[in-house]
Write a structure and sequence with these properties.
mainly beta; seven-stranded antiparallel beta sheet; 1 helix
Length: 125
């Protein structure tokens, strides 16, 4: 679905690693940090086959309904970044998780990656 080449705007990322956790099957990419002043970022994508956008959980920063390229979604900010849950049907979704140094930055990156990389690759319906 996504490769390090898709993320070059945010730095150099290591190859993705598969992971299954929290009811989702997915993959994550870690930014390769070159200098002490550079901020690290982890980008993860998880597929939830039996949970839709309406099943998303508030992790402390509230649930903010949004749309991404016309697709129903919800932003879920927290102190360590942001989750953007993209609806794929009434009972499934793809979660884009950005671990960054703050929620606002994480949500900005999540929105841009969702618009340009993730959402265009999802099935319409």
């Amino acid at each position: 679905m996504m490769t390090p080449a898709d993320l070059t705007e945010y730095g150099t990322f290591l190859p993705g690693t598969s992971e299954n956790k929290g009811g989702a099957r997915g993959c994550s990419w870690v930014k390769s940090v070159q200098t002490a002043s550079e901020k690290g970022i982890v980008i993860g994508v998880g597929v939830r086959d039996s949970q839709g956008v309406k099943d998303a959980n508030d992790v402390g920063g509230g649930l903010q309904p949004v749309t991404v390229n016309g697709r129903e979604a919800v932003q879920i900010p927290d102190a360590s970044g942001c989750i953007l849950a993209l609806g794929v049907g009434a009972r499934s979704r793809v979660d884009l998780t950005i671990a960054a140094d703050e929620a606002e930055k994480g949500c900005q990156i999540a929105t841009k990656v969702a618009q340009t990389v993730v959402e265009p690759k999802l099935p319409k319906g």
